[in-house]
Each structure stands twice: as structure tokens, then as C-alpha cells.
Backbone:
């Protein structure tokens, strides 16, 4: 211990994952004073349809936020006529 | 929070997973009174040889249950002679 | 399957947890068509110092948001003099 | 319950995973006295760049250990001249 | 690796948990051929209101099964009059 | 995402856990380029009888290592007579 399960969206390169693991390991060594060899990190990657916030995928969420912004601007445009 | 890890057998469509995530999110919003945006769901899918009940895959288990049923019926047939 | 690990902040009553488990189970039965008996839910509760967003506990985060709001209002007040 | 999540390196055959699941199930039945049908095992497999000890993949770690051994032997060789 | 997360109902003694960990470790060593030192087991215990099957705690489920058995016997008794 | 489950031995102070969460969050922001607000960390703490390496608790393991060292030294002492 510490043992970490790290959930990431798919799409990182091997190099990025290695860098993240090294950085997190160092962070734990310096903040908790644990031995470097005791830190174990497991990465699990999730595809677009395997992660949801508010019941929406990241894509659906971006679209919902964009729509919300556009409809917030529309009354203003309407007034501007 | 809530943060959910949902383990499923492989084979669901993207639409089914989206529907499940939406339904579970609504269930948590209405039962716990949490904000919709605070609900995060992570899906991990498992293949046939990555899930075991009684030390058997679902396929082995179905066959075992079928065999048990057949051998339960056989003495009856034997008697029926 | 489905098997769910549900992470919650500490502080819910037993009744709330039961209600959440029932609601989530029904959500999965109706959205995925699984048998009710196949749904297993494990709850793990986390204390204030066991959950972090942006490296902050929920308490630290509320205070940070409050401070940000107050400092955003201050220039306006200053101008208003 | 018991419900087990078993993290393995990728590369085991289906037969090996089945054997492991059966052996672990029997181990739990005999040591805890649980019913065989109550034991559920979920396997998650991790690739070379999804598991880190000391911030290193297994490959990097083997190379680091080999280098350490070689540099430990070198002073001896140097002395041997 | 293997790294196992083992979810158990609360109530086992320390000795039972040690025995289970030893038995599972031996099971993995003999079935997968891994080194004993590479096997890590994490136990998480869950209270009565932190584990649900069919949306019911184990207690609710036992009562539901008992009720189902009793109501299955009642028509027979009624007929027997 | 990233969402991290961090398993620790019991016994850290709240301050140590906060420091670890901050350090790990910064490590992920700088190595993966993710937004600070997207990093969620869940800590689960395990008691002495809830974590096993080689089927032994940390205490049993220390004693086993000590015994191994002592018995490794004994033949030498015996020879030294």
C-alpha cells in the first residue's frame, strides 16, 4: 500500500500513462513518506459510453452545455431585432 | 458523489448502457435527493471468462443446471417403464 | 451481474440507503431487462477526509467557492462607493 | 458475498482464469464456510502500461533490477583487473 | 499482481480473515503459478445496510423467502380441509 | 475523470490524507493536462487484518522477515565458533 485504481478515459498514449504513474508515485512518496516500492497503480480505461455524469456521456454533456449557452443568448438576439 | 462502478457482462449496445446510466442517475436523484450533476457512473464490462459464480462461468453454470434437471427427471422416466 | 459498487458520503440513514438500493435495482431491471435477483449493490461510505475534488474536501471546496464569490463582488462594491 | 475483484496482468488463457476462479472459490468455501453459490469473482485484466510498481511497468522494473545487478558487479570486475 | 479486492459481510474474526487470505493466496499460487509475494489481498467489509440483492438486505431477503414459502404452503393446507 | 480509488493502511491523520490528495491531484494536472476540478479521489482505509501480502498481514510479514534474517545469521555464528 498505497494501492491505487486509476480510472481514465480511453485515448492516452502509453507515454502519458507512464508519466502519470511516475508523477502520482512521487506525489505519494513525498506526501505520505511511503517507500517507492510500496506504491502500486492499476489503470482502467473507459470508453465514451462507459462514463456518465448527470446520466450523460461527455459528448452529450458538451452538446447540452452548448445548447444551454445558445438558448441563453437567443432572447438577447430576439430583443436586438 | 455518488460515484458508481457498474460491472456488466459484455454485449450491451451503447444505447442500452446510456439508458441504464440515465435510469440509475434518476433513481439516485429521487431516492437520495442528490444533484444530478454529482452522479458519476463508471461501467466496466466483463467477458464470459471474467465472471464466475460458484467458480463457474455463466455458460458452465447453465449447463450444470440443465444437467441437474435432466438427472432429476431420469429416475422418473426409469420408473415410467 | 450487474454488480454495483456505490460510493457515498457518510451520513445517510439505513432507510435512505435501502431506498437508494431499491430504486437503483428497479432502474436496472427496467432499463437492461435483467432479473431482479441478479442485481447486487455494495455500498462503501466515505468520511469528510476521504473524498476530494480538485484536491479539496467538500468543506474546503464550499469555502473556496464562497471566497471566490465574495472577492468577485468586492470590486463592484468598491466601484459603487 | 464474498464478491471478489481480481486484477490480473493480461495474457492468461481462458482455462487458467477458470482454474484460478475455481481454486479461489474452493479456498473461500473451506476457509469461511460460505456457500459455493454465494461466491462471485470478477476478473479485470491490465496491459503492460496499466500496472505500475514504484512508478514503473513490469518491463521497466526488470530492466532497472538488471542494471542494478550489473552495476553492483562492475566494481568487482574493475578490482579484478 | 494478482491484486484482489475481497468484499465480505461484517462479522468475521481476524483469524477467519487471515485464514481466508492464506487459502486464497495458496489457490492463486497453485492455479496461476504466480509468486506468493506478488499476491495482494484487500478486504472491505460491509454492514447489513451496505449490501443488497434484488434491492433487499440479507435480512429482508430471508424474510421474503420465508413469507414466500409460507404462502406457498397455505393453499395446500386450505385444500387439505 | 480521472477518478482514483486510493487504498491506504489505517492510521494517517486527516492532514496527511489532505496532503496526499492535493499532491496526487497536482501530479495528474501536470502529467495529463486534465482540469483540476475533474480529479476525484476516494480514500478507503484498511486495518491490519484487511491487507495481506503473501497471505500475511504486515505484522506477520515483518516477523517472518526477521526470523529469516536470524536463521540466516545463525549458521554463520555456528561456523564462527
Residues:
Amino acid at each position: 500500500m498505497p494501492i491505487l485504481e486509476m480510472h481514465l478515459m480511453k485515448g492516452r498514449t502509453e507515454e502519458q500513462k507512464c508519466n502519470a504513474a511516475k508523477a502520482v508515485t512521487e506525489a505519494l512518496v513525498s506526501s505520505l513518506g511511503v517507500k517507492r516500492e510500496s506504491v502500486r497503480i492499476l489503470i482502467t480505461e473507459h470508453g465514451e459510453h462507459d462514463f456518465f455524469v448527470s446520466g450523460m456521456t461527455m459528448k452529450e454533456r458538451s452538446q447540452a452545455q452548448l445548447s444551454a449557452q445558445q438558448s441563453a443568448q437567443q432572447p438577447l438576439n430576439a430583443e436586438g431585432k
